[in-house]
Amino acid sequence: MAVGHMSACKESSESAARVMKHLQLLSFVTERAGEITRRYLTPQHQKANALVGNWMKKAGMKTHVDSAGNIIGVYDGMDRNAPAVLFGSHLDTVRNAGAYDGTLGVLSAIEAVHCLHEQHIRLTHPIWIIGFADEEGTRFGVTFLGSAAVAGHWNSAWFDVVDMDGVSMKEAMLSFGLDPDRIEDAAIPRSRVKDYYELHIEQGSVLDASHRALGVVSCINESRRFQLSISGETGHSGTTPMSCRRDAVFGAAEVISAFEKIASEYGDRLYCTVGSIHCAPNLANCIAGSMELRLDIRAGDQELLDILEKRLFEAAQNICRKRRLLFESTRYFFSPLVHCCADLMEKIRKSLEKIQGYSPVLQSGAAHDASEIASVWPMAMIFMRCAGGKSHCPEESVRQDDVRCGIEFLLDLLCSNY
Ligand code: GLV
Ligand code: MN
Ligand code: MN
Predict the structure, then answer these.
(1) 3-state secondary structure of 332
(2) Quick check: 409 pLDDT over 80?
């Protein structure tokens, strides 16, 4: 149904204020007071689903939680047999997160539906919104759990992965009230969905630096993650001669420095991070016998990543050999370079031109549920500027006026195309 978006959203400033309020309310749903930490299958996940489900209902949607713990809202279309236009993003967070990563996309889409509902507008196609249960992998170290289940890519080996307290994913699902035997019910049949969109904060500084509110994403960069082990020998810190040590911490320090030096040669064309380190026995008076590191490398160029990966691991092997340490690596995560659907990008471009008069195109350096979804349905993403490009930290922020633009954009996209 073609309806002017402005008639669908009489009061977009009020809508933006409501989204900001809901984002704040969601930020209070946290495992630790004073920060935002909301992990998969925790009581806070349960509470976030309840809040979001309530807002979906107020927006005129029917809701349910699927067998992976995703909250899903459905706003019927005039043609009940028409495939849905699907909006999604995630409700979980990293530790000590910002308030907008993931949540912004879910709550903005709900608000767009709310506007339609208030104006008694039904489109031809149903609108579905999913708040994905886990994208960050903060609890179990496995990412995209919610979207993988929806895309039909669940891996049953994940049930046995344990969190830091030794609780398996299967046990956590049961405590949450989910039936692991029914996980496959979360997969949405391909024919039920027409197109997928995800609105997300940019998490980088391209839009902010160019004073643009919204942009269209061309692709999501490839991402590879590795578990690295460096093994030496533990011993007494006060008696073992320096020349005899096989110290895993000193070895890892040299390896990490070499990684930084190598990656820096490529300027801003790639990203290399060692964001997680654990040593054992982790005591001041013991030489560390082992180090476990997690390495994350990303780029929009697969060949460049192949070269980087080879160089990093050669350097690590050489350093460890000289120090009589054992170096081992296992790739535990891979998300390929994914291009957004050209037709959907064009739809986004047209709506952005109408709403803000320009439509910058940019790549995504961050990973998204959209990557997982792209193998099943046409997918596209819209980025909103965030101050200084800061994300995965409490300083994340967006402007209320950009949120207003985002809602107007979503309404135009919906009313012009679906
Ligand atoms: C998710 O936010 C990621 O880019 O790792
Ligand atoms: Mn994130
Ligand atoms: Mn995110």
Answers:
(1) strand
(2) yes
Per-residue pLDDT reduced to its tens digit, 43-59:
999 999 999 999 999 99
User: Where do the DSSP E strands lie in 83-221?
Assistant: 84-90, 127-132, 193-201, 214-220
Confidence class of residue 7 from pLDDT cuts 50, 70 and 90?
A: low
b/e burial code for range 116-147 (CB count within 10 A of at least 16 → b): bbeeebbbebbbbbbbbbbbbbbbbbbbbbbb
d(CA 77, CA 85): 10
Mutual angle of helices 248-264 and 302-322, in 10-degree steps:
150
Ligand 1 binding pocket (C-beta < 6 A) is 136, 366-367
Q: Which ligand 1 atom sits nearest the alpha carbon of residue 392? A: 2
Identify residue 303 by its one-letter amino acid code.
E
Q: What does the block give as tokens for 398?
A: 């967006």
Pick from 218, 213, 245, 216: which is nearest to 232 by CA?
245
Residue 329 near residue 228 (C-beta atoms within 8 A): yes
Out of 38, 89, 335, 392, give the residue to mutate to test ligand 1, the one with the largest number of ligand atoms within 8 Å of its CB: 392
pLDDT tens per residue, range 113-160: 999 999 999 999 999 999 999 999 999 999 999 999 999 999 999 999
Q: 69 alpha carbon to ligand 2 midpoint, in Å?
A: 18
Length of the chain counted residue by residue: 418
Q: Whose CA is nearest to atom 5 of ligand 1?
A: 367
State the angle between helix axes of 400-417 and 12-27 in degrees (0 to 180), rounded to the nearest 10. 110
